[in-house]
Structures are given as structure tokens and as C-alpha cells.
């Protein structure tokens, strides 16, 4: 007889926010530490789901494959989001889940009848913060979920409370307002600025920043932060006012705003804040790349701003050694103006730095077709030719060594074969001689 539901009902703790008994929990094994997941964390669990009859309808253990999801994001059953946020790493718990927190009135065809209360055994294997960038440079852990689904956009004015720590020591604690994309002006690191468009009003989160998203190789003397330091910021988004989106502005408004954004990007570039400059130039592109203009003059201005923005982005990405992005932005310029020598030159630089010497030389030759007096391009062509010769010489050495090794190996492999052949040949000769002798003796006897 299956009585686990009765045990859970009598001993389980109601862990639902509403305290409506929708999810009851009994801890079978305590966790390894007091630390618990936060909203948005990537969690990894093992689980077994059963009906009140005791029949198993799903089990990661039987599949021998753990399951991962971002907790508190509505990716799984409500009961799971609630339960996992209450668990410690290594904890194993039993959960009694009412239909409204599990599979609802629909159930799950062929597995779970409608309006079923179900039981889960769940083990929290591990959890880690939510990565906000592809390179893992910004990791977020949400302490308090915000309201709604709207976030600040680039150019929005945000009002935040910041607490910055380095190696556990508090170095920054203040209320501050800034425009998203321009946090550098207020001494705010890139990682905090870039996290704004993922936050909601009222949210409090902890951001773990690798050095490139903190104060980089220069550090921050004002806060006594040395170079290449990882940072931790606790950020509360108190309020914000969104900037106008591209579709909310007419073309004239975009063209009027573009020079100021360009100027801001140039300032960041000159100061060596290349990622902040990228944000500004990308804003111009997002505004104008789909615009055509209503006349020759407008079309000309749009083209000029787009060419400028892509060329400046290419220069920024050269500085941070993101050569694929350099090439992509130069390609955009060439599509707009195939006689733009800067685009050909910068694409050549990127290809040269990627050791694509032949392609780079073609780009520098195109520069000379546009501007025959460009001495820098001639110098780069010489470098390409030298690199190609070096590469060819290296290939010759590599292949020569390779062929020498093959020859030596073949030579070593042939001798034993010859010995075996010689032995076989000697054996046959011996047998032939023996037959001849026997025939000779037989003939003499006759």
C-alpha cells in the first residue's frame, strides 16, 4: 500500500509563497552548505516523479542523465521553481505537489491523469549564476525579483543603488543615475552597464564581473582597484525611464541625434574604452540601417553615418582583437562604398593578424587601386609577401621532415620483409636441392 502521500501531508512543510499547501516538502538528506540558488541560476537536478498510486511516470535517474534549467524563469513546473529555491546543494527532498503547481487540469497524456497530485523525489546536484555574455564575463544572481517584464534599453536613464566589492572589500556604495551605455561617465564598470537591459524595476542582483567587464588592465585608482581584478557588484534598480526606440523616432530625429552619439563614441575610443564606444556606434546603426531617406540629401547623410559607424566599429574591434567583427563591419562598408580605402585597409589588417596572408595582400592591393600613393598599404603588401615566403619555407621544411620520416620508416619496414623473403627463398632452395638429391639417389639405385 502506498502511504508516502500521507507522510508528506502530516510531516511536510508548506513552501509555497501563498501558504496554500500546494507544495509540501520533507527533507530526506540535508545539503552540504547553507547557500541556496537564486532566481535565474542554472541548476542541475536528479528527480523521480510518481503518482499517488506509487507508479513512476518520469525519472532522470533511470535515464542516467541529470536535468538542468534556469530556476524561477517559468521553464519548469511551478512546484520545481518553488522547491529548488528552498534547497541546498546536495540536498534530497520529497515533494507533494497539488495539480495547480504540477500538471494542472490537463495532466499529461498517457502518463498523468487530469487534476493529479504528484510526488517528486529531487536532488539538487549543483547551481551557478546566470551568464549574461557568451564569454562568461558577466554572471548574475538575482536576490530579489523585479516587477513586470520591461527592462531599460540603450540610452535609458536608470536610478540604481550600487555596492561594489573587490576581494571581499567594499570600495563603492552609492545611489547613482546614468544613461545606459554611458555608465563609464559615472565611474561605473562596463559589466554593470551592460547588465541593465536584463533587469526589471525593483530587482536586486549580484553581478560577478571578470576584469574585462570591470576596470580592465588599467584598474581604477579612485577606488584603489589594481589592474585585472575581478569585481562583485550588488545592484538594485530603483527606477528607470526608457529611451525612445528606433521605431518611435522619425528619420529627422535620428539624424539629429546621431552626431551627439558619434561624439560620445569618439570620446570613449580616445580614452581607450573600446567596448563603451562600440555601444554608441551600434546605436547609430540600429537607427539608420533600415532607413532609405526621402531624397538625395537624406540618403547621403544616412550613408555617411553608416559608413562612419561601421568603420569606427572595425577600429574598435581591431583594438580588442575581435578580427571576425572587424571583417564583418568592413564588409558592410564595402557594400555601401566599394572605393572606401579605409575599409579595405582595415579588413587587410584583420586578415593579416589572422595569418590569412594571401587574402590580406589582395585587400591591400585594392587599397592601392583606390589610392596608389598609400605608402602604408605598400608596406603591408611587403609584409604579406615576406610572411607568405616564410610560410612556404616552413611548409617545405615540414614536408621535407615528413617525407624523410616516411622514408626512414619505410626503410625500416622493408628490411625485415626482405629477411623473411630471403628465408623463404632459402627454404625453397633447400627443399629443391633436397628433392634433386633424392631423385639423384633414386636414379643411381635404378
TrEMBL record:
<feature type="domain" description="PPIase FKBP-type">
    <location>
        <begin position="155"/>
        <end position="241"/>
    </location>
</feature>
<keyword id="KW-0697">Rotamase</keyword>
<keyword id="KW-0802">TPR repeat</keyword>
<feature type="compositionally biased region" description="Basic and acidic residues">
    <location>
        <begin position="410"/>
        <end position="424"/>
    </location>
</feature>
<dbReference type="InterPro" id="IPR019734">
    <property type="entry name" value="TPR_rpt"/>
</dbReference>
<feature type="compositionally biased region" description="Basic residues">
    <location>
        <begin position="435"/>
        <end position="446"/>
    </location>
</feature>
<dbReference type="InterPro" id="IPR001179">
    <property type="entry name" value="PPIase_FKBP_dom"/>
</dbReference>
<protein>
    <recommendedName>
        <fullName>peptidylprolyl isomerase</fullName>
        <ecNumber>5.2.1.8</ecNumber>
    </recommendedName>
</protein>
<dbReference type="Pfam" id="PF00254">
    <property type="entry name" value="FKBP_C"/>
</dbReference>
<feature type="repeat" description="TPR">
    <location>
        <begin position="307"/>
        <end position="340"/>
    </location>
</feature>
<dbReference type="InterPro" id="IPR050754">
    <property type="entry name" value="FKBP4/5/8-like"/>
</dbReference>
<feature type="domain" description="PPIase FKBP-type">
    <location>
        <begin position="40"/>
        <end position="128"/>
    </location>
</feature>
<keyword id="KW-0677">Repeat</keyword>
<keyword id="KW-0413">Isomerase</keyword>
<keyword id="KW-0143">Chaperone</keyword>
<dbReference type="InterPro" id="IPR046357">
    <property type="entry name" value="PPIase_dom_sf"/>
</dbReference>
<feature type="repeat" description="TPR">
    <location>
        <begin position="341"/>
        <end position="374"/>
    </location>
</feature>
<feature type="region of interest" description="Disordered">
    <location>
        <begin position="410"/>
        <end position="446"/>
    </location>
</feature>
<dbReference type="InterPro" id="IPR011990">
    <property type="entry name" value="TPR-like_helical_dom_sf"/>
</dbReference>
<dbReference type="GO" id="GO:0003755">
    <property type="term" value="F:peptidyl-prolyl cis-trans isomerase activity"/>
</dbReference>
